[in-house]
Amino acid sequence: MVKSLPKLIRRFVVVLLLSSVLLFLFNFALFALYVGSQKPNGHPWTTASQVADALSEEGCRLPKELALELERDHVWAIWIEEQTKKVVWHTKNLPAAVPLSYSLSDIAGLTRGYIDGYPTFTGEAENGLAVLGYPKDSFWKHMWPSWDYSLISNLPGILLCACASNLALLFLIYLFVNTKLLKSVKPIVGAIQSLPAKETVRIPETGLFAELAASINKASEILQTQNRQLRKKETARANWIAGVSHDIRTPLSMVMGYAGQLEQDPRLGQDSRKKAAVIVTQSRRMRNLINDLNLASKLEYNMQPVNLIRQNLVALLRQVAVDFINMDIDAKYPVIWETKEALTVCPAEIDKGLVKRAVSNLIQNCMYHNAQGCSIFVRVETEESHAVIVVEDNGSGADDEQIEQLNRAPHYMVCDENTTKQRHGLGLLIVKQIMAAHGGTVKIGHSSYGGFCVKLSLPIVN
Fold it and tell me: What is the pTM of this model?
């Protein structure tokens, strides 16, 4: 099952429950507001008791405030004497249809119900009974207000069960209505999750989301077509780079050979021999660039085999440093080995040739960007479960913006019109690709000596 589908269902259920609770609270608030807006004398039984007490104490005289209240609400009132069961007092607005004499059964009936359609309410006193008649259709009286006591005592539980039953019914209705929706959503969600993995997607174009399914199918076809075209272009580019690299090597070797002979020919003038030396130098740089381009292409398309063998990084990096020390005849670029003497073994599973190439590129990078000369510092450190190879110099370095760009850019190629000055280019790109092939990382920054610094991090093998 698609992982997001349960989340979608949970979301729907939460929305359903919240909607039910909010609906209940809203209706309860409306009911409370309506009840609160009723008239203050909305409880006629209380008013009838007040009238009975007043008539009993005042001798069939009604206080002015209570009389005004009855008149305002269009209520008529009578006072039935205890002994004679006759009306001995009534208000001026007494309807003509209201009897002036009552039996016990009449009193029982009016207490429970109506007189000629007027809802009546009674208030008893020691010497009589007060009866209030409210306007017709003002109150509805429950004629048989008797309830089973067990029903009253169990009312909270009954209400709770009723609420639970209503929620369950609402939930079932919700599931029934949305089952088709969920069935339609499931393949669409699965298809969308498959698109980033470059998988071919084909879902039925039916149901509520037929148009969306058609759009997803079309997008999948476009992506598959683009991927096929991209693979063709990548293969063509890799083959072209490999072919050009192979075809250039032979004439380039001839150029370098003849230029080297001219550089050593004593019959040529000093100026011509210098020009020949420039040709040799630039041809060597061109050869290195071609080799770097070929290696970068192979690493990018996983065409370069990576033979991981357990190696001692300290011994390997020391050998690279010694090689550069031996080549620096003019002592213009002294290489200083800074690894702590206590660290003699740092095991890692690496491709020996590729790691040596990465470190060599970093040392050469320090040389290329410091024509006036600089000191190059090489060391191996350990940080938790990783080995860190550090190559830095005390040369001109780079500003913060360049450092940030080199760390953030997906590659380190720099193209401009400056053909005489070497820039950060394929050398750093190859270092990054070699580290990626080893599961390592590259971090570029400022050197503690004021120049340029690159740190390579590789996992240590126990």
Answer: 0.45
Question: 64-72 and 44-58 helices cross at what angle (nearest 10)?
Answer: 140
In whole angstroms, give the CA distance from residue 339 to residue 399. 27
**One-character DSSP codes across 297-353:** HHHHTT-S----EEEEHHHHHHHHHHHHHHH-TT-SS-EEE---TT----EEEE-HH
Is the sign of the CA dihedral 64, 65, 68, 70 positive or negative?
A: negative
pLDDT tens profile 61-71: 888 888 898 99
- CA–CA separation, 455 and 68 (whole Å): 98
Q: Sign (positive/negative) of CA torsion 124, 76, 56, 79?
A: negative
**Using CA atoms, how far apart are residues 158 and 163, in angstroms rounded to an integer?**
9
Q: DSSP string covering 4-41, please?
A: HHHHHHHHHHHHHHHHHHHHHHHHHHHHHHHHHTS-TT
Say which residues have a Cβ less than 8 Å from residue 248's Cβ, sequence separation at least 6. Answer: 290
C-alpha to C-alpha distance for 231 and 160, rounded to whole angstroms: 65
Phi, psi (deg, nearest 5) at residue 265 = -75, 115
Q: Which amino acid is at 393?
A: D
Contact 195, 220 (CB under 8 A): yes
Cβ pair 387, 348 in contact under 8 A: yes
Of 229, 200, 231, 227, whose CA–CA distance to 216 is shortest? 200
CA 357, CA 369: separation in Å to the nearest integer? Answer: 18
Chain centre to alpha carbon of residue 343: 45
Task: Provide mean pLDDT across the span 334-358.
Answer: 88
Q: Give the model's confidence band at 453: pLDDT under 50 very low, under 70 low, under 90 confident, else very high.
A: very high
Q: Please give the Cα distance from 385 to 460 (Å, whole number).
A: 6
Give pLDDT tens digits for 239-268. 666 666 666 777 877 878 878 888 888 888
